[in-house]
Amino acid sequence: MGNSTTTVDEFVERFCLAVRERGLRLTNQRIAVVRRFFQQGHHVTVDRLYQLVLKEHPQIGYATVYRTLKLLVECSLAQTHQFDQNRVCFELYEEHEHHDHLICIECSKIIEFEHEEIERLQDTVAEAHDFVLTTHRMELYGVCSDCQKKS
Amino acid sequence: MGNSTTTVDEFVERFCLAVRERGLRLTNQRIAVVRRFFQQGHHVTVDRLYQLVLKEHPQIGYATVYRTLKLLVECSLAQTHQFDQNRVCFELYEEHEHHDHLICIECSKIIEFEHEEIERLQDTVAEAHDFVLTTHRMELYGVCSDCQKKS
DNA sequence: CTGATTGCAAACCGTTTGCATATCA
DNA sequence: TGATATGCAAACGGTTTGCAATCAG
Q: Which residue of chain A comes nearest to B135, CA vs CA?
């Protein structure tokens, strides 16, 4: 469902602007992919999104979905994550709204969280090693409460 | 160079024990791979290790290196990391010695660090979401001091 | 001896690309 | 109309596996 402060239409509009800015073209396929990407929620693989778009756009090719997601990343509207060794995940990118992930190793549920204190400490670590930080990733793996009950 | 508290021979010995425990067999190839893995230092890809072992063991196959590293992971003597979308990295695994990584996006240099305070805060986050934590990863990406000077 | 291991080559599988055709601007 | 985008199918590249030959125990 995207997030609480943006609607699908706003998101698509942002995409359209970014596309025009680059002298690229708007196509039905691109809009369909972008729309579904936003509606689907935060984390999605190319394959999953391809399956979803296929339902309403039976002609679409996998490569188009792949290339549109790549374009979204270039436009800073999406970002990638690699939670396992195989597939890459795409999610919304929102400036000034960095978050990290709690991942259930049983059901693959992904919960997002923010923690300013940790971010601050990360900066300290980087400073101590003379690094100029550009980005970071933090993933906590464990068993969620639902899965704890099951076993 | 492995680490300060273990020698190559001790490491190989630990591997031999683990192998016997499992009713598996010790071969020259396995020992050569394990030795080089330890001597090489912390982070290494299958391909890189294959190249290294090849020099002293021209007959060895890529698959053997791959399978030996996998075996090391099963024996809790190595662990994997995925710093980029392509290759998997292997490094020593040492119980009770968790560390995280600072990675230079220019020269790919990897610096390890530990930070108890952050670890503690991570536990807090997990608790707050009713997660039982099993592991985590934290990677800070930036430009190291050497590369800052260059540009 | 005999079952585990090796080395080779091929299969796998997600990702990426070349290209002829279709489409947007 | 002309450059961009699409869909297909094939290439890529790291990983994994089947299999006959080899070897450790």
A: A141
DSSP state, A142? E
Shortest distance between the Cα of A98 and any Cα of chain B, in A, equals 13
- Residues B59-99: pLDDT tens digits? 999 999 999 999 999 999 999 999 888 899 999 998 888 89
pLDDT digit string (tens) for A80-121?
A: 999 888 899 999 998 888 899 999 988 888 999 999 999 999
List B residues 2-21 in contact with A (Cβ-Cβ < 8 A). none
Q: What angle do CA B101, A108, B81 make, to 5 degrees?
A: 25
pTM for the full predicted model: 0.87
Q: With an 8 Å Cβ cutoff, are B144 and A131 in contact?
A: yes
CB-based contact (8 Å) between A105 and chain B? yes
CA-nearest of B41, B67, B65 to B51 is B65
Name the residue among A89, A105, A90 with its Cα closest to residue A140: A105
- The arithmetic mean of pLDDT across residues A133-140, rounded, is 94
User: Residue B4's pLDDT is what?
Assistant: 60
Three-state SS string across A37-92, please?
HHHHCCCEEHHHHHHHHHHHCCCCCHHHHHHHHHHHHHCCCEEEECCCCCCCEEEE
Closest residue to C22 measured CA to C1′: A27
Q: Is nucleic acid strand D under 7 Å from A27's C-beta?
A: yes
